[in-house]
Fold this protein.
Amino acid sequence: MIAAVLFLLFTVVPVVETYLIIEVGSRLGALETVGTLVLAGLLGAWLGKRAGGTVLREIFEGLRRGEPPAVKLVEGLLALVGAVLLVTPGYLSDVVGIVLLWAPARRWLAPRVKDRAWAYLSRRGFTFVGDGAPGPAMRARQEAEKKFDHPVVE
C-alpha cells in the first residue's frame, strides 16, 4: 500500500503536473504560465502564514479551555502542507493546496486524518495515554474557576 502511494507521489503526480504546465503554457504563453505559478507561490506563502497563525491561536484558546489539541494540531499540519503545495510549482498541487488552506475543508478533514493516524499507530503497537479529558492540573483550575465564579488568572 505504501509503495503504491509513494509511486503515485513521486512518479505519477510530477508527470501530471508537467503535462498541465505544458498545456497551460501552450494556451496562455510561457510568460503568463510562469507568472501564474509565481503568483500561486506568493499566495501560498501569505495564506499559509495567515492560516498557521489562526490555527495556533485556536490551539492556545482550546488549551485554556482544557480541550485536547490533537485535532487542531492536525489542522495546523494540513495548513502547512497546503502552503507548501501552493509554493510548489504546479496546477494540481495548487488546487490541493487551496483546498487544504480553506478552513471549512481543513476542519472537516482534520478529525478524519487524526483518527486514521491513531488507528494506524495503534495497529503498530503504539499506545496513547489519556482519553483526551483534562488532566489533574486542568481539573484543579476548572474547580477553582467554579469556586470563585471567574477565570483564574496566572
